[in-house]
Amino acid sequence: MRYVKDYMVHRNFKDNLLQLTKLFLNLVVLVGSALVLHAQQKTGSLEGTVFDKSTKQPLDLVNVFIEGTTFGAATDSKGYYNIRSIRVGAYTVRFSIIGYKERRFSNVQIRPGRNDLSAVLEETLLQTDEVIVTPKPERYDASGISARLGKDMVASTPGSAQDIFWVVQ
Q1: Does the predicted TM-score (pTM) go above 0.85?
Q2: Rounded to whole angstroms, what are the CA distances from 88 to 8, 25, 32?
């Protein structure tokens, strides 16, 4: 009778331990899901298109930066950019490309989810000081170069047709 009682106590202990383990795992999954959901609500994305002011055409390879962060992107061939995982808040967004005036948008509010910001850039002339290019004469000294060409080398060179002048070129 004692063995039956010990077995029942042991079995109840195992059942209780299994139920506690399941409860603990469910609690971990629930807390983890809440944290992920909370983290997702704290970030947003910024996307839009950049156009040329005079031609109204999309501009590719425009650099789009969120100042004060390491976030940025370059526009594609359709002028589109997308920056993801930006913390919710207010930022200054800068658009720049060589040959166009830089454009800044201050106090851009990033909210959870998608945020749109498109820009129109105006061409500018690049002015520089005078540039003078002077070639430097080159001297080639081939006196130290020598090579021995044997019959086998001439014959094995592709396209030579066993012509030594073809191989030397």
Answers
A1: no
A2: 57, 31, 21
